[in-house]
Amino acid sequence: MINMEQDQLEQLVNELSIQYFGKPYLDKVSFNNRLRTTGGRYIPSRRMIELNPKYLVELGTDEFNGIIKHELCHYHLHIEGKGFNHRDPEFRALLRETNSPRFCSPLPSMRKVAKYQYICKKCGHVYNRMRSVNTAKYRCGRCKGRLTVK
Known about the structure:
A three-stranded mixed β-sheet has the order 1-3-2. It has helices at 6-21, 53-59, 61-80, 89-98; strands at 28-31, 40-43, 48-51, 116-120, 126-129, 147-149. By secondary structure, the chain is α+β, with helices and mostly antiparallel strands.
C-alpha cells in the first residue's frame, strides 16, 4: 500500500468519500512531492486534491486516510456552496462529524534537532536551542540564574 499508483489513489479517495460523506469523489486527485509543511491541499479553482506522499511512507495509512478525510471536508463543502475554510463553523462541524483531524502530525524527517544546549547553574533547567545565546547577556527564565553551555 505504500507504493500507490494513481488509480489506487483515486479508488481510495472515492471509497473514503462514499464511506464518510455518502457521496462519490468525482474530480482529480494526485500526489505532490513538492508539498513540505502540509499533508495535502484542496485547490477550489481546479476542484483538485493534492496529497503529500511522504505522509503515507513515514506515518502510515491511518494518518494518510485522516489527511484525505480532511481534504474531502473542504471538497464537499465547496461543492455544496457552504463555508469550506478552516475558520468556518460548517467546516469545523463536518470535521467533528467525520472524525477528521484538524491538523496533520509533523513528519519525523522534518523535525529539527537542537544544535545548542544550555544549563542553568542555579536550578539545572536545560534549554535546547537552534541558535546560540549570549550567556553573558541572557539568564534562566525560571530562576534568573546564569547559563552555561552543556
